[in-house]
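Thread title: Can someone regenerate the structure for this chain?

I was given the following input by a collaborator and told the matching structure tokens would be attached. They weren't. Posting the sequence so someone can regenerate them.
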Amino acid sequence: MNRTSRTKKPIHIRQILWLLLLLFFCYYELFPLSEADTFFFPTLFLLSLWFTAQRRRILPLAWHNALASFLHPLTVRLRVFHIWQIRGNVAPPLNTKPCTCKNCGDTFTGNYCPRCGQSRNTPRYVLRGIVGNILRTVFRVDGKFAHTLLELLYRPGHMMRDFIRGRRIGYTLPLAMVFLMTAFYTLTAQLIIPEIREKKEEQTAKKNDVPLTKSETLQATIDKLELEKGQTDNPAMQKSLEISISETEKALAEIQRQDSIAGKPQFNSDLDEISSSVYTKVETWLEDVPFLANVWNLLKRWGHGNKAFHILLTLPLLAVATRWAFYRRRKPDMFNLMEHILIQAYIATQILLISTLVVPFNGTAHVDDLYEVPFWFIFLLFWWDYRQLYLYTWWRSFWKTVLMFTYCLVIVVILAMTGVLLLCLVQGTTTLHL
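Best answer:
Regenerated them for you:
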């Protein structure tokens, strides 16, 4: 088709509303101007304006041709890079010359020995290659691990799709990547910023030195009296201990009532009391079985402050929300729920990798948070990953990503309401029994 005979397409009302909304956010962010501004919305506004002008043929033809000829070298290189992203690394050509394996002595043709798996390329170690050998020894944890990290930086969505479709020999398993990158992030944060380790030690020391409150002291007294009651066989002593426990529980209830009036609202206090009682009953029931008690104590020690464990808990939530957001009625979903969880594990690894890279530049690290990068950057990563994973346009991927995070919010609210309802039901059942 001749460029001079092109027809202009009218601007859609959705694009006008989107540009006006971005313009409002630009004004809200830039006035008054401060050093903390990220210029995120102005950049997004300019990109959206350029996209709309290109798609709707708003620019004059002469301007369009001049700009296209000026950007042609960059466009060609971007096209080559895009093809490289989709294709990924290609396997090396098969060597047809016969070779004798230096490990097992078998004669074969190809790149690797079919008997022991050793590569045919096994050169001798020389002094001039000592620097490369040291670097490979120190920084190359595993060939697959480094290769997976590299591809998560420039072709994450294509890499995830290749992994799900069966091209897995060159990649580390996603759940293992989460644990390894969590360890690398924590180690990097503590090596570059030693104050984090010192602060953690100070918090632990303070936690151990904090005196017990009056409520905690009374609760400890009740636990001690109940333990003595269970150990004695004297009926008179048991009766006396029951009276002491009853009086102490009344005093504890009075102190908790005064604290709830003076401090936080009664509703929150009741919820905390309900959850505490439910947690105590579950823990008591588990401690009656030695095996379950050991498993429960192990899970508590492992889950407390474990970043990888907290990240793994978010994977099913993001997987369900992603499946709902990208569901197509006429076409079946290309990924099942388990595959969505593995995809979310790779995305979590990608965010952890970028968090590790930005720690030296931030000058601080939030080890207790899930990730180091802000939420808007995480949104951009999800947007980019989903565009490559589903091969959608930028515009459609953006709205699908917004829909995915909306579903996440809805699921969290539903889970929170369900938890409150269950706690209220348990409290009502306990009151009826009493």
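The first helix runs from residue 13 to 30.
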